[in-house]
Every structure is written in C-alpha cells, then in structure tokens.
Amino acid sequence: MNKKIEAIQQQLQKLRQQIEHHNYQYYVLDNPAIPDVEYDRLFRELQQIERDYPRLITSESPTQRVGAAPLNTFSQVVHEVPMLSLDNAFDEEKVASFDRRIREGLSVPVVEYAVEPKFDGLAVSLRYEQGKFKTGSTRGDGYTGEDITQNLRTIKSIPLCLSAKDVPTLLEVRGEVLMMKADFQHLNQSQRDKGEKAFANPRNAAAGSLRQLDSKVTATRHLTFFAYGIGWVEDGGIPKVKHSDIMDYLLSLHFPVAKECAVVTGSDALLAYYHDIGTKRESLPYEIDGVVYKVNALAQQEKLGYVSRAPRFALAHKFPAQEMVTKVLGIDVQVGRTGTLTPVARLEPVFVGGVTVTNATLHNIDEVQRKDVRVGDTVIVRRAGDVIPEVVSVMQTQRSAQTEPFVMPENCPVCGAKAARLSGEAAVRCTGGLFCPAQQKQAIIHFSARRAMDIDGLGDKLIEQLVDHSVVRTSADLYKLGVTALVNLERLAEKSANNLLAAIEKSKQTTLARFIYALGIRNVGETTAKALASYYGGLDRLMDADLEDLQLVPDVGPIVAQSLADFFAQPHNREVIEQLRLAGVSWEEQDGMSAIATEVTAVSGKTFVLTGTLPSMSRETAKEEIETRGGKVVGSVSKKTNYVVVGTDPGSKYDKALSLGVTILDEAGLKDLLQ
Ligand code: IVH
User: Fold this and answer.
1) What are the residue numbers of the active site?
2) How many helices (H) and strands (E) does the chain have?
3) Mean pLDDT across the stretch 352-379?
4) Distance from residue 296's CA to the centre of ligand 1 (Å)
5) pLDDT value, residue 93
C-alpha cells in the first residue's frame, strides 16, 4: 500500500471512530459531547473522503448505516440458539411461588436475582462475527426469524463494530427494539401533518418501522435498542459467572443497557423493585409492560433449566394492561369552562391501567371523525398513569351494520345556545358564554381553586348545587352568599356554612396575578397572569390595553393578546369584575413595567426585526436589550415593523424591509436608540 493511501486509511479510521464515539455519546449515553454542527462537519468530511476513494468504504463505516437498496422480501435466519419466551406473573402470589420453586430446586435459603424492565418493543437478535455486525433478525417463531439487518443498521445505538481487547469470534446479542415516547409523538404528529395514518402506540410504530422493506424509511423513524442478554458466544472474554456481569460486559462493548437494571436478593426485594419501577413507569422515556426477574448466577440458571419454551430461572411480572377492549355504549358531549364541547365515550366498564374505566375522552370532533368512533363500536381504550382514559382506535372488523357516524350537536347540550367552531380551531364551542350553566360552574370551580382565589371548602359538588339552584351565577355572587342560602343546600351544616363564608371573606385579600388567573381567560394560565400583573401593575391598565400593547408583555403573543382583548371587550365580564371590586376583592397595585417602559420613548412600543450577524452584539443580547426597554422583537418583517436591524449576511428580511420602506438600522444605530 502506498504511503498516501495508508495515511488516508488512517484518517478514515479516525473519523469513523470519532463519529461512532459521538453516536454512542448521543444515542446510548444521552450525553452529546459535541454540538450537532461539529458532528455534521465530521460526517461530511468522512463522506467526502469516501466519495474520493470509494474503494476504501467498508460496511462498518457510519456512512453505510443508511442507503442499502430496498428489498423485495425478507429472507429467513435460523437463530444460533432459540429465542424463548418468558413465563408471566400478574400477581404477587405467583412471584412468591416462583421464588419458592427456585429455592427448592437449588436447595438454597435465598436467591440473588438480576432485575430488569420488561421492554414493550420487539425482540431481535444481533449477530457479530469477528466483532463486526453481520446479521440482525426478528424473533419469528423463536427458531427462525426474518433478516432485518438493513433496518437494524440504521439504529444508531447499535454498534456496527465492537472494540475490545478480546472480542468473541461469534456473539449473538439479544434485546428489544423500541421507539422512545418522544420520537413516537413526533412521528405521529408528522404522519397526521402528511394526512397519513397515526400509529396506535410506540410498539406498533416500532414494529411498522422494522418491517419496512426500504431501510431508508426505517432510518427516518428513530428507533432505539436495549440489550437484555446473549444468545450465543464463541471465544472472547465474556464473563461466565453472573448474568449481571454479562450485562456489564455488553455495556463495555457499547451496547445500550437500561439504567434501571439492578441486582437484588429475595422475593420481597423482587416486589419492591416491581413497585419502584411501577412508580417510575410514566416518567421513563420508553414504554415497558412489566419487569423481568432472572436468577443471577449462570450455574444456577443452568441447573434450573427450561420448561417447554421458557426458562425456569426467569419470570416476567407484568403491570396491569394499559390498553383493553370494550364497547361504546354512548357518546355524550360535555361543556368545559371556556365552552369547549368535548365528546366523551360512555363505555362498558373495563379494568384498564389498574382501575375500572367507564368514560373515555374523544378530545374533539376531528378526533372522533379521524378514528370514526360510533355508538356500538368495539374499541381499544387506553389509560396510562394519571392520564385521562382515551379511545385509541376502533376495531373495524367488529362493527355491526347499524352504526351511524357521530355528529356534533348544533346547540350546546346544557344551555341550548348555538355551538360554533372558530376557523383554525379544533374545538366546537358553546356561544352561550357565562349564561351557560355548564360554563358558569366551570368558571366558578376555576375561580375558587387553590392557585386562583383559594376558597377553602368550596368543592365542585357544592358549586354544582349553587348553580343548579340559581343561587350563584357568577363568581361575584359568591361574595353575596349568606348562611341561610347555604344551609338550605343539601348536606351543608351551619358550621361548615360559616367556615365557608369565612374562607370566602378571606379570599377577598388577594394579588393581582391570582385575580387575573382566577378570571379564567382563555389561554391565560398562571405564568401569563403573573407576567401581565408585573407588567401592568394595575387591573385598569390591563383592561384598557390594546392588542399591540398587550404583545409587549414578555411571552404574550397574538393569540393570548386576542383572548385578553376579547375577554375585556365583553360588557358582562367587565360587570362581574366591577361587582367583585365592589364586594371588596382587592390587591396591592403597583406601577408595573409598562410605566417604566413608557419612559424610554425611543424603543418602548416599537417592533424590531433582527437579521444577519451584528459586529459586537449577539442576537440574544440585542433582543434582551430591546425587550427590557419595552420594545418587541419579532421574526418577520411587515408594514407594522418599526425597525429592521441589519448585520453582515442579512437574509431576505433585509430585502423585504427595503421594499416596504421600513427604517433600517445597523448596530451603531440600534445602540444610539437604546441609549
Ligand atoms: S429475557 C429466555 N429480558 O419479553 C427469555 N426478555 O416473553 C429471554 N423482553 O419477546 C428473554 N424485556 O423480547 C428478557 N429484560 C428483558 C425483556 C425481555 C422484554 C421480551 C422479550 C420476549 C418476551 C419474553
């Protein structure tokens, strides 16, 4: 080999190692060591050299993960050792008897177990020959699977090449391919954006992505892999004593191993692990459907052996299913605080996610139509953690001929006012506003909540009664309540009535932020309410602000500004506010930032667009400087823009500013203005 080629080979090897190292940092350790642009630069450099010297491309090069020609069909692969299944346990009794059988079988008083999450994905086997990834396959029938090598190569957390002193000549790594919850959400969003079918859950999405004949599609799907054991090994420095040592060894070969894997002793510890992982389940970035217990000592595993197609030394302890099949008995429409009409499926009771579920949200009319949920349908219902149960999909094959598509009512089912859908919104809303009892109830529930006016003892049931008996219609009516009106209600003793009145009295002294939040204005949550309070300092200044002015408040964009303007434009809302003030609801008023901002006349109230690189200021600093003086920085140039600040290499915004005749500033001009 000539010297030049040798040098290029060396450079290629260095680049490939660097890139795989950064893949490992990013995809396995979740700890990127370099910025994306630097990674891209290394990748492009490697691509360029490989383009110049195609003879030097090897199949282990990171550039070769994607790009294989689409297949016509998957070929079959015989597993070196069968891929077995696990015995399942759904209750603690079965776990205790598993441990008892093992202790008896081994004649030992106590057993050490390796404990792991049970990944809810697809089992795969990865075959490495001389440390190089050769074949990857699905489980299939356990003996023969499908060759999905091309697809598995696109998963960046799967090493293409193993680097260790004593690499086995043959190694079959077993594990699970998953789609992370976040990647699943992104994928479904983009499927919907493209008008394509969304996947029911991450497992289905992972399965659909792995079964692609064109690996370029798989590459776009962001799959992940976790190793949980080995199938077969020849030679090399593989540990021979404990399963947990094998997992550490796989980790040292850069295979992803779940952080949640542990070693525990005795059956109580198994259950403690089950409960611990159960509480973490929702916050894990991937889906699991239980935990797996494995006798840790390999000699003990061998002694226990196998029964039919499952090892005697391992057990899967499953969580209650998060998805179950049931029937839709009816579809009701509920009215929320801001008048949103939400279709809700009434279900034949079903035990799912650990509780009995009788209702499931259908979100909005688009969702009902997309899933085509009908009364009488057999559906899959999902309840995960504290998330409200939802209908995932309809089992179309079970549908009877008599079903009818769901139609949203034209009128509010509570007050009868017209229901309307604003353009660009998914929700259909009742136009009855605060005259609608359903909205009255929700508005008062929100008003009295702990983070709003904090009226202790005013529960949802009591509010329902108060509204149903027309004792209270608006939040201001709460301050007119007397003992007699309260004790006339069901289940309210005089003492509780007096306590409640004291709590209502106490709530009068509040803060402006709490009061704004308590008004229940659409799109105005606690954070926005705080920002508005500190910006305006007083309620009248907020109520009189126009759309442009509102958008000067940090984090207030056009949508929130419009909601605020709409709310304060309603005479009814102004009247309720007036009554609340007359009843004695008060807070300390301040000057607020708006008062300070108006002193700086040159920048306050002005809209800026930044384009190109400024000589000495970063874009962030320029934005901050403008905003602290009451100006606003927006992304695009329009007739309303006051100034476009231009640096070197400006974008099309500069041309637009010229064509619209907007004042153009350089950095010096901006600095003058800021001073
Ligand atoms: S060990 C001899 N460990 O569960 C059996 N399996 O019913 C070897 N699974 O499809 C399996 N997480 O893919 C093992 N931590 C884990 C697992 C796990 C998920 C899957 C496996 C298989 C099924 C077994």
Assistant:
1) 118
2) 25, 24
3) 92
4) 15
5) 95
Amino acid identity of 557?
Answer: G
Site to substitute for ligand 1 among 81, 119, 250, 291, most atoms within 8 A of C-beta: 119
Mean pLDDT over each residue of the chain, to the nearest integer = 91
Question: Which atom of ligand 1 approaches the CA of 176 most closely?
Answer: 13
Whose tokens are 């998963």? That residue is: 155
pLDDT at 316 over 90: yes
Residue 659's alpha-carbon distances to 647, 649, 662, in angstroms, are 18, 18, 8
pLDDT tens per residue across span 439-453 = 999 999 999 999 999
Q: Is 433 in the pocket of ligand 1 (CB under 6 A)?
A: no
Contact 381, 373 (CB under 8 A): no
Residues belonging to the chain: 675
Q: Which long-range contacts (CB under 8 A, 24 or more apart) does 45-53 make?
A: 45/15, 46/12, 46/15, 46/16, 46/19, 49/8, 49/11, 49/12, 49/15, 50/12, 53/5, 53/8, 53/12
Measured CA angle at 299 (ends 293, 305), to 5 deg: 65
Q: Is the CB of 84 under 6 A from ligand 1?
A: yes
Q: Mind giving me the DSSP string for 462-505? A: HHHHHHHTTS-SSGGGGGG--HHHHHTSTT--HHHHHHHHHHHH
Instruction: Take atom 14 of ligand 1 and give the residue whose Cα is closest.
Output: 228
- pLDDT for 596: 56
- The torsion angles phi and psi of 56, rounded to 5 degrees, stand at -90, 5
Q: Which two tokens stand for residue 636?
A: 């695009």
Contact in structure between 361 and 388 (CB atoms under 8 Å): yes
Tens-digit pLDDT profile for residues 569-613: 988 899 999 999 999 999 998 877 766 555 556 787 789 999 988
**What SS3 class is residue 14?**
helix
**Burial bucket for residue 125 (CB in 10 Å: 0-12, 13-18, 19+):** buried
Asked if residue 295 has its Cβ within 6 Å of ligand 1, the reply is no
Task: Calculate how far, in angstroms, residue 117's C-alpha sits from the geometric centre of ligand 1.
Answer: 9
Give the other-Cβ count within 10 Å of 254's Cβ.
Answer: 20
- Residue having the nearest C-alpha atom to atom 23 of ligand 1: 85
Share of the chain above pLDDT 90, in %: 67
Read off the pLDDT of each residue in 539-559 and give the average, rounded to a whole number. 90
pLDDT digits (tens, 9 = 90+) for 323-334: 899 999 999 999
Angle at which helix 558-569 crosses helix 571-582, to 10 degrees, equals 70
In sequence order, the β-bridge partners of residue 77 are 145
Q: H or E segment at 559?
A: helix 558-569
Q: What is the DSSP letter of 204?
A: H
| pLDDT score of 29 | 87
